[in-house]
Specification:
Blueprint (H helix, E strand, L loop, with lengths): L1 E8 L3 H16 L19 E2 L3 E2 L21 H13 L1 H22 L4 E11 L8 E12 L6 H67 L5 H35 L27 H5 L2 H21 L5 E12 L12 E11 L5 H67 L5 H35 L9
Antiparallel strand pairs: 1-7, 2-3, 4-5, 5-6, 6-7
Length: about 475
């Protein structure tokens, strides 16, 4: 139940002065905001990354320009593709539209701080053979209403919408970074597949030569039929592996096309040499880089928006104040609309207070407070996840660098063993089974080396994403 109070002011000097006094009192009450002051929630602040060494505490810098981080890999084609993601990827386009919508909502909320003015014009003409009266009537009226933001409810709505718009902007940055990171990961996976296929092509050529040697030895009666069958089996398996890689490459090419906003049928990425470049990791990673993560910025802004909701809910405890005014003229001629003697105007002040609603207001405040606590918990969890992401990628970066050295040593050794065993087989010193084993070991070692190189590039991309889009600390 509400109790309205309406005070109509007619055109008299005393009541006009009363209206001015009311307006002055309302203006003086304009700073009575009932919402809680916002503070960024506390989060864990480790002194150093466990996997990287000490780093400096710094102020959040999520607004810094991240720059074209993909240029760190030195692949011009990757740079061309990554630049196209921002304008062609449909997920990014959706995030752009969401941000535009959020900005429009801010403007819509801000408009509630200002009066609403309406203009009405009408004209009537009546007559007829059986009409008792006939004539014409014209009316011109202007009216306005305004809800002064005494308790800060409207300002809280504007602040909340602005915080949500900032969160939407961070979501847009996250969508761009995610799409670009996914493109880079798929691109490197495709180049790795090209390298694997080139490796298999060389291996298949070698297997064919060995099969011919084995066939000649069998024809000469110095090798068993089983040697030929083993050589054929090994060749067929390698050719089958190559077909599997061809299927994987096609899927990766299709995925890249979709990330670029193109139909797979309209996109082809030709095979090219693989640029096995992995950017060096800085010795120390300042906290500013972690704070640049757009998901952290979005989560923090949503806490701020939830905080404003508390103020909006608390404002329901206080009365709603409204001001209305109108003026109108009328007459039988258009010229009468501009006659002062025909002017009628009014001004009104209203207040409405909820007396009883069975605890609905209290429940609304409790809901808003719980929403703020939920947003705070999600923000803190986002920060923890971000620290974990960076630690994971730093550890993987260090381990993969060490594995690359070992994989290269293993591949070189396996190549030498394969060559020696094949020479001994030609000399009749070992069985063909040993040749098969040596060749399988050498191929596995070569492919493992290619895989660890690709893993290093994929980890570098993941680390860049974990750090918010790069390692630069200046705009």
């Amino acid at each position: 139940m509400t109790m309205p109070i309406v005070y109509a002011l007619l055109p008299s000097p005393r009541r006009t002065a009363g209206a001015a006094a009311c307006l002055l009192a309302i203006a003086m009450l304009g700073g009575c905001a009932v919402g809680p002051a916002y503070r960024v929630p506390d989060t864990p602040q480790p002194v150093a990354f466990k996997e990287a060494g000490p780093w400096m505490l710094a102020t959040p810098a999520d607004t810094l320009e991240r720059g074209p981080w993909w240029t760190l890999f030195g692949d011009p084609l990757l740079g061309e593709l990554a630049s196209s993601v921002e304008v062609s990827n449909q997920n990014v386009a959706a995030a752009v539209a969401s941000y535009a919508q959020a900005r429009a909502l801010v403007q819509q909320q801000r408009s509630s701080l200002f009066p609403t003015v309406s203009l009405n014009v009408s004209g009537d003409k009546s007559g007829g053979r059986g009409a008792a009266l006939s004539g014409q009537d014209y009316r011109l009226g202007i009216g306005g209403s305004w809800e002064p933001d005494i308790w800060g409810r409207l300002r809280a709505g504007v602040n909340g919408a602005n915080a949500n718009a900032q969160a939407s902007a961070a979501d847009l940055a996250a969508a761009r970074l995610s799409a670009q990171g996914e493109l880079a990961a798929n691109y490197f996976a495709l180049r790795q597949t090209d390298a694997q296929r080139e490796l298999l092509a060389q291996t298949i050529d070698g297997y064919k030569r060995v099969l011919q040697i084995t066939q000649n030895r069998f024809n000469a009666g110095i090798a068993a039929k089983s040697d030929v069958l083993q050589a054929q089996t090994q060749l067929a398996n390698a050719q089958s592996d190559d077909l599997s890689l061809a299927r994987q490459r096609a899927q990766l090419e299709h995925a890249i096309a979709i990330l670029l906003g193109k139909a797979p049928a309209d996109f082809t990425l030709a095979a090219a040499p693989w640029q096995v470049n992995v950017p060096d990791i800085p010795a120390g990673v300042p906290s500013a880089l972690l704070q640049r993560r757009p998901d952290i910025a979005a989560a923090e802004r949503r806490v701020a928006a939830a905080n404003e909701e508390i103020g909006i809910a608390r404002a329901a405890y206080y009365p709603n104040i409204g001001l209305t005014g109108s003026g109108a003229t009328g007459g039988s001629r258009v010229a009468d609309l501009f006659s002062v003697s025909n002017l009628v105007w009014s001004f009104g002040l209203s207040a409405a207070q909820t007396v009883f609603n069975a605890g609905a207001t209290r429940a609304g405040v409790a809901s808003a407070e719980a929403g703020q606590q939920l947003a705070t918990a999600r923000y803190r969890q986002t920060v923890l996840d971000a620290f974990g992401d960076v630690e994971d990628q730093l550890a993987a970066t260090r381990v993969l660098a060490q594995q690359t050295v070992l994989r290269r040593q293993a591949s070189d050794a396996a190549n030498q063993v394969e060559e020696q065993i094949l020479n001994r087989y030609k000399a009749g010193q070992v069985s063909y089974t040993e040749v098969v084993q040596a060749q399988a070991t050498a191929l596995s070692a070569r492919r493992a080396l290619v895989q660890v190189q690709a893993d290093r590039q994929a980890t570098a991309v993941a680390l860049i994403q974990s750090l918010g889009g790069g390692w630069q600390t200046t705009p």
